[in-house]
Amino acid sequence: MIYHTHQLPNGIRILYYPTDSTISHCCLMVNAGSRDEEKGKDGLAHFIEHLLFKATEKRNTNQILNYLEVVGADLNAYTTKEYTCIHASFLKEYLERAMDLMEDIFFHSTFPQEDLEKEKGVILDEIASYQDQPEEAIQDDFEDLLFKNHALGRNILGTAESVSALTRADIASFIAQNYNTHQAVFAVTGQYDFAKVIKLAERYFGQVPENNQPKKRVKPIASAKELVRIEKAISQTHCVLGTTAYASYDDRKAVLLLLNNILGGNGMSSRLNLEIREKHGIAYTIESNYSPLTDTGLFSIYFGTDTEKASKAMRLVQKELQKLRDKKLSTLQLQQAKQKFIGQIALAEENRLGLILSMAKSLMDFGRIDTLEEVFAKINAVTADNLLAVSNEVFDPVRMLTLLFEPED
Length: 409
Prior knowledge:
Cytochrome Bc1 Complex, Chain A, domain 1; six-stranded mixed beta sheet; 15 helices
């Protein structure tokens, strides 16, 4: 993997990954997410992301939305617990157009009061829609339980009450405190000369005023074991169980990533899917996920099933976790697990937009990007003893929180 980086005097980093495709992808990412919101301002980071598409000093909403779409390009954005990102996909000749628009909406949005009120209504509908999907809502409620009384536990969308109360002053304060140019990355992949990319970056991002406000994030304290049952107007039982896990910088991250893939990651051949869906036929969806964050991580297992089958599904999940705690993988099992995971990672590189987003995040977090060879080396270095040790730590029943959404009587 050959990539190029450059840092502007204001701190914004430029990342370029060359490809031979006529389709280009780019993103502008800043290290500011929902965990950076002040208490009571839940949903502010996501609210700002929506409003970036409304009005700037020189463009109205229609001009913003049409500027790239008129040439067949795609423009979108997302907010996570730790990041806000705008991204675009376009024919290679429209790179300058994309950079012009991204700089404008990210650094020159005006947030008219009329747009604030309209967008609040849109987000309130989004919150209501989300709450109607128990398989989605349970994940947020679980994180609120796991990261109790901490910003990481709060829903990225916020609540109806918190969003309704947000003001322009809240927006200005959040941007001033969190849109740090030294923690912002513009990344692009496509068929360009790097000197041209730098020249355009200097033109469009070089004049952005420097902002080097320090982060004020507080590491969460792990919650104790707990079982929570909530009755809802639903037809199935939904379950999430899990615990805190390793942060992005932890050397054991690669071990848990591989372990998660074995247990319930991508593909139909994961242990949980084979046991609970294929063998017993008691859940349509069952999966595990590991999400490393800058100072902690989250491991969880989700399934939904008929209420009368929920207890059996839970026992089977615990059985699979116990197997990984009790018995080391054989040499053949370990090799097959590594081959599967490495293949999935290699195939994921074909998704060029996903790749450039991942590279931007890596540059933001670590100041560098691992090559595929380095990633594969970390996976191949994992031993059966490593997997056993991590299984016994992360899957310890004493640490596990469980949340159940159950149908009302």
